[in-house]
Amino acid sequence: xxxxxxxxxxxxxxxxxxxxxxxxxxxxxxxxxxxxxxxxxxxxxxxxxxxxxxxxxxxxxxxxxxxxxxxxxxxxxxxxxxxxxxxxxxxxxxxxxxxxxxxxxxxxxxxxxxxxxxxxxxxxxxxxxxxxxxxxxxxxxxxxxxxxxxxxxxxxxxxxxxxxxxxxxxxxxxxxxxxxxxxxxxxxxxxxxxxxxxxxxxxxxxxxxxxxxxxx
Amino acid sequence: xxxxxxxxxxxxxxxxxxxxxxxxxxxxxxxxxxxxxxxxxxxxxxxxxxxxxxxxxxxxxxxxxxxxx
Lengths: 216, 69
Hints:
The complex is a heterodimer. Chain A has seven helices and ten strands.
Protein backbone atom coordinates (compact mmCIF):
# COMPACT_ATOMS: atom_id res chain seq x y z
CA UNK A 1 0.00 0.00 0.00
CA UNK A 2 1.47 3.36 -1.07
CA UNK A 3 -0.19 5.73 1.43
CA UNK A 4 -0.46 8.14 -1.47
CA UNK A 5 -3.68 9.74 -2.64
CA UNK A 6 -4.36 11.38 -5.96
CA UNK A 7 -7.18 13.90 -6.38
CA UNK A 8 -8.58 15.43 -9.56
CA UNK A 9 -9.94 18.91 -8.91
CA UNK A 10 -11.19 20.57 -12.10
CA UNK A 11 -13.00 23.88 -12.02
CA UNK A 12 -14.41 24.92 -15.33
CA UNK A 13 -17.97 25.88 -14.36
CA UNK A 14 -19.99 26.81 -11.29
CA UNK A 15 -20.64 23.23 -10.15
CA UNK A 16 -17.04 22.06 -10.47
CA UNK A 17 -15.82 25.33 -8.91
CA UNK A 18 -17.91 24.53 -5.83
CA UNK A 19 -17.04 20.86 -5.46
CA UNK A 20 -13.38 21.65 -6.09
CA UNK A 21 -13.27 24.41 -3.48
CA UNK A 22 -14.66 21.98 -0.93
CA UNK A 23 -12.37 19.16 -2.04
CA UNK A 24 -9.31 21.41 -1.67
CA UNK A 25 -10.52 22.46 1.74
CA UNK A 26 -10.85 18.81 2.75
CA UNK A 27 -7.42 17.88 1.41
CA UNK A 28 -5.82 20.87 3.18
CA UNK A 29 -7.19 19.59 6.47
CA UNK A 30 -5.82 16.10 5.81
CA UNK A 31 -2.28 17.13 4.89
CA UNK A 32 -0.83 16.32 8.27
CA UNK A 33 -2.43 12.88 8.43
CA UNK A 34 -1.08 9.58 7.21
CA UNK A 35 -1.78 10.03 3.51
CA UNK A 36 0.26 12.14 1.11
CA UNK A 37 -2.10 13.93 -1.28
CA UNK A 38 -1.30 14.98 -4.84
CA UNK A 39 -3.94 17.30 -6.22
CA UNK A 40 -4.41 17.82 -9.95
CA UNK A 41 -6.15 21.17 -10.02
CA UNK A 42 -7.82 23.02 -12.91
CA UNK A 43 -6.04 22.39 -16.24
CA UNK A 44 -3.85 19.70 -14.66
CA UNK A 45 -6.95 17.56 -14.11
CA UNK A 46 -6.54 15.94 -17.50
CA UNK A 47 -6.19 12.33 -18.62
CA UNK A 48 -2.54 12.67 -19.62
CA UNK A 49 -1.46 14.16 -16.26
CA UNK A 50 -3.70 11.72 -14.38
CA UNK A 51 -2.16 8.72 -16.16
CA UNK A 52 1.35 10.00 -15.61
CA UNK A 53 0.72 10.56 -11.86
CA UNK A 54 -0.81 7.09 -11.52
CA UNK A 55 2.26 5.54 -13.08
CA UNK A 56 4.70 7.59 -11.02
CA UNK A 57 3.09 7.37 -7.57
CA UNK A 58 0.84 4.28 -7.64
CA UNK A 59 -1.71 5.85 -5.26
CA UNK A 60 -3.78 3.62 -3.02
CA UNK A 61 -6.59 6.20 -2.94
CA UNK A 62 -8.11 8.23 -5.78
CA UNK A 63 -10.47 11.13 -5.15
CA UNK A 64 -12.28 12.23 -8.30
CA UNK A 65 -14.23 15.48 -8.44
CA UNK A 66 -16.01 16.53 -11.60
CA UNK A 67 -18.89 15.86 -13.88
CA UNK A 68 -19.79 12.33 -14.74
CA UNK A 69 -22.38 9.96 -15.99
CA UNK A 70 -23.28 6.29 -15.53
CA UNK A 71 -20.24 5.13 -17.52
CA UNK A 72 -17.67 7.87 -17.01
CA UNK A 73 -16.05 10.57 -14.91
CA UNK A 74 -14.59 13.77 -16.29
CA UNK A 75 -11.71 16.12 -15.62
CA UNK A 76 -11.10 19.75 -16.50
CA UNK A 77 -13.50 21.17 -19.10
CA UNK A 78 -15.32 17.84 -19.08
CA UNK A 79 -12.49 15.89 -20.68
CA UNK A 80 -13.29 12.19 -20.28
CA UNK A 81 -10.94 10.77 -17.65
CA UNK A 82 -12.15 7.24 -17.10
CA UNK A 83 -14.76 5.49 -19.18
CA UNK A 84 -16.24 2.02 -19.18
CA UNK A 85 -14.68 -0.16 -21.85
CA UNK A 86 -11.80 2.24 -22.45
CA UNK A 87 -9.58 2.67 -19.41
CA UNK A 88 -11.28 1.65 -16.15
CA UNK A 89 -8.23 -0.57 -15.62
CA UNK A 90 -6.44 2.63 -14.49
CA UNK A 91 -8.25 2.22 -11.17
CA UNK A 92 -6.77 -1.25 -10.61
CA UNK A 93 -5.52 -1.83 -7.03
CA UNK A 94 -6.99 1.49 -5.83
CA UNK A 95 -9.86 2.63 -3.67
CA UNK A 96 -11.66 5.35 -5.61
CA UNK A 97 -14.19 7.86 -4.37
CA UNK A 98 -15.93 9.82 -7.12
CA UNK A 99 -17.88 12.93 -6.18
CA UNK A 100 -19.47 12.85 -9.56
CA UNK A 101 -22.96 12.16 -10.91
CA UNK A 102 -24.15 8.57 -11.44
CA UNK A 103 -20.75 6.96 -12.01
CA UNK A 104 -21.38 4.18 -9.48
CA UNK A 105 -24.06 2.85 -11.79
CA UNK A 106 -21.82 1.41 -14.53
CA UNK A 107 -18.25 2.68 -14.13
CA UNK A 108 -18.07 1.56 -10.47
CA UNK A 109 -18.98 -2.09 -11.13
CA UNK A 110 -16.82 -2.13 -14.26
CA UNK A 111 -13.79 -0.73 -12.37
CA UNK A 112 -14.16 -3.34 -9.63
CA UNK A 113 -14.41 -6.05 -12.26
CA UNK A 114 -11.20 -4.68 -13.81
CA UNK A 115 -9.33 -4.97 -10.51
CA UNK A 116 -10.18 -1.86 -8.46
CA UNK A 117 -10.17 -2.69 -4.75
CA UNK A 118 -13.30 -0.61 -4.20
CA UNK A 119 -15.33 2.15 -5.80
CA UNK A 120 -17.42 4.59 -3.79
CA UNK A 121 -19.74 6.90 -5.67
CA UNK A 122 -23.27 7.93 -6.53
CA UNK A 123 -25.78 5.98 -8.57
CA UNK A 124 -27.80 9.12 -9.30
CA UNK A 125 -27.04 12.79 -9.96
CA UNK A 126 -25.33 14.47 -7.00
CA UNK A 127 -27.46 17.49 -6.21
CA UNK A 128 -26.71 20.48 -4.00
CA UNK A 129 -27.90 24.01 -3.36
CA UNK A 130 -25.81 27.15 -3.57
CA UNK A 131 -26.21 30.74 -2.47
CA UNK A 132 -25.53 32.85 -5.58
CA UNK A 133 -24.09 35.65 -3.44
CA UNK A 134 -21.30 33.24 -2.38
CA UNK A 135 -20.31 32.24 -5.91
CA UNK A 136 -16.85 33.76 -5.53
CA UNK A 137 -16.39 32.35 -2.01
CA UNK A 138 -17.81 28.80 -2.18
CA UNK A 139 -16.15 27.71 1.07
CA UNK A 140 -18.24 30.29 2.96
CA UNK A 141 -21.51 28.99 1.51
CA UNK A 142 -23.34 27.43 4.46
CA UNK A 143 -26.11 26.12 2.20
CA UNK A 144 -23.67 24.22 -0.01
CA UNK A 145 -21.83 23.03 3.10
CA UNK A 146 -24.90 21.03 4.17
CA UNK A 147 -24.35 18.84 1.08
CA UNK A 148 -20.62 19.05 0.39
CA UNK A 149 -19.30 18.50 3.91
CA UNK A 150 -21.00 15.07 4.24
CA UNK A 151 -19.95 14.19 0.68
CA UNK A 152 -16.29 14.99 1.44
CA UNK A 153 -16.46 13.04 4.66
CA UNK A 154 -15.85 9.83 2.70
CA UNK A 155 -12.27 10.99 2.08
CA UNK A 156 -11.81 12.25 5.64
CA UNK A 157 -12.83 8.86 6.96
CA UNK A 158 -10.68 6.88 4.49
CA UNK A 159 -7.69 9.09 5.34
CA UNK A 160 -8.14 8.16 9.00
CA UNK A 161 -7.75 4.51 8.10
CA UNK A 162 -11.39 3.51 8.18
CA UNK A 163 -12.63 0.80 5.86
CA UNK A 164 -14.57 1.41 2.68
CA UNK A 165 -17.81 0.44 4.41
CA UNK A 166 -17.07 2.56 7.49
CA UNK A 167 -16.22 5.60 5.35
CA UNK A 168 -19.40 5.23 3.31
CA UNK A 169 -21.50 4.86 6.45
CA UNK A 170 -19.74 7.80 8.11
CA UNK A 171 -20.68 9.99 5.16
CA UNK A 172 -24.28 8.72 5.22
CA UNK A 173 -24.44 9.41 8.96
CA UNK A 174 -23.20 12.95 8.34
CA UNK A 175 -25.97 13.45 5.76
CA UNK A 176 -28.42 12.00 8.27
CA UNK A 177 -27.22 14.36 11.00
CA UNK A 178 -27.86 17.32 8.67
CA UNK A 179 -31.27 15.88 7.77
CA UNK A 180 -32.18 15.55 11.44
CA UNK A 181 -31.03 19.13 12.07
CA UNK A 182 -33.39 20.30 9.35
CA UNK A 183 -36.40 18.54 10.84
CA UNK A 184 -35.64 19.92 14.28
CA UNK A 185 -36.88 23.27 15.47
CA UNK A 186 -33.41 24.78 14.82
CA UNK A 187 -34.05 25.14 11.10
CA UNK A 188 -36.16 27.63 9.15
CA UNK A 189 -39.14 26.63 7.01
CA UNK A 190 -37.07 27.49 3.91
CA UNK A 191 -34.22 25.24 4.96
CA UNK A 192 -36.52 22.26 5.45
CA UNK A 193 -37.10 22.23 1.69
CA UNK A 194 -33.53 20.91 1.30
CA UNK A 195 -34.51 17.68 3.07
CA UNK A 196 -35.55 15.73 -0.01
CA UNK A 197 -32.28 16.59 -1.79
CA UNK A 198 -30.08 15.57 1.15
CA UNK A 199 -31.97 12.29 1.37
CA UNK A 200 -31.52 11.83 -2.40
CA UNK A 201 -27.73 12.25 -2.13
CA UNK A 202 -27.49 10.07 0.97
CA UNK A 203 -29.42 7.22 -0.61
CA UNK A 204 -27.52 7.52 -3.87
CA UNK A 205 -24.11 6.98 -2.23
CA UNK A 206 -22.89 3.38 -2.55
CA UNK A 207 -19.69 1.42 -2.07
CA UNK A 208 -18.70 -1.42 -4.36
CA UNK A 209 -15.90 -3.97 -4.06
CA UNK A 210 -13.99 -4.91 -0.92
CA UNK A 211 -15.91 -3.31 1.95
CA UNK A 212 -13.18 -4.13 4.47
CA UNK A 213 -10.36 -2.51 2.50
CA UNK A 214 -8.49 0.53 3.83
CA UNK A 215 -6.43 3.15 1.99
CA UNK A 216 -3.59 3.37 4.52
CA UNK B 1 -53.43 9.86 -15.83
CA UNK B 2 -55.12 11.73 -13.00
CA UNK B 3 -52.51 10.43 -10.54
CA UNK B 4 -49.72 11.59 -12.83
CA UNK B 5 -51.20 15.09 -12.90
CA UNK B 6 -51.57 15.05 -9.12
CA UNK B 7 -47.88 14.12 -8.74
CA UNK B 8 -46.81 16.93 -11.09
CA UNK B 9 -48.98 19.39 -9.14
CA UNK B 10 -47.44 18.16 -5.88
CA UNK B 11 -43.89 18.55 -7.22
CA UNK B 12 -44.62 22.08 -8.46
CA UNK B 13 -46.16 23.00 -5.11
CA UNK B 14 -43.05 21.73 -3.31
CA UNK B 15 -40.71 23.59 -5.67
CA UNK B 16 -42.64 26.81 -5.06
CA UNK B 17 -41.61 26.54 -1.41
CA UNK B 18 -37.88 26.58 -2.24
CA UNK B 19 -36.03 29.67 -1.04
CA UNK B 20 -36.09 32.41 -3.71
CA UNK B 21 -32.42 33.32 -3.16
CA UNK B 22 -30.85 29.89 -3.80
CA UNK B 23 -29.98 27.85 -6.85
CA UNK B 24 -29.82 24.11 -7.29
CA UNK B 25 -26.87 22.44 -8.98
CA UNK B 26 -27.72 19.30 -10.95
CA UNK B 27 -24.41 17.95 -12.21
CA UNK B 28 -23.51 18.78 -15.78
CA UNK B 29 -27.06 20.03 -16.41
CA UNK B 30 -26.11 23.24 -14.59
CA UNK B 31 -27.70 25.46 -11.97
CA UNK B 32 -31.37 26.35 -11.80
CA UNK B 33 -33.62 28.78 -9.94
CA UNK B 34 -36.90 27.49 -8.59
CA UNK B 35 -38.82 29.22 -11.40
CA UNK B 36 -36.66 27.42 -13.97
CA UNK B 37 -37.21 24.09 -12.22
CA UNK B 38 -40.97 24.59 -12.26
CA UNK B 39 -40.83 25.26 -16.02
CA UNK B 40 -38.86 22.06 -16.52
CA UNK B 41 -41.46 20.08 -14.58
CA UNK B 42 -44.27 21.62 -16.63
CA UNK B 43 -42.36 20.77 -19.83
CA UNK B 44 -41.85 17.19 -18.59
CA UNK B 45 -38.22 17.18 -19.78
CA UNK B 46 -35.28 15.33 -18.22
CA UNK B 47 -34.72 17.93 -15.48
CA UNK B 48 -38.44 18.00 -14.69
CA UNK B 49 -38.55 14.21 -14.53
CA UNK B 50 -35.56 14.29 -12.16
CA UNK B 51 -37.50 16.59 -9.83
CA UNK B 52 -40.43 14.18 -9.91
CA UNK B 53 -38.09 11.24 -9.17
CA UNK B 54 -36.63 13.12 -6.18
CA UNK B 55 -40.10 13.83 -4.78
CA UNK B 56 -41.16 10.20 -5.20
CA UNK B 57 -37.95 9.04 -3.52
CA UNK B 58 -38.62 11.48 -0.67
CA UNK B 59 -42.14 10.10 -0.15
CA UNK B 60 -40.77 6.55 -0.15
CA UNK B 61 -38.05 7.50 2.35
CA UNK B 62 -40.63 9.01 4.70
CA UNK B 63 -42.61 5.78 4.55
CA UNK B 64 -39.42 3.85 5.35
CA UNK B 65 -38.62 6.17 8.28
CA UNK B 66 -35.21 7.16 6.93
CA UNK B 67 -35.10 10.24 9.19
CA UNK B 68 -34.69 8.14 12.28
CA UNK B 69 -32.24 5.46 11.12
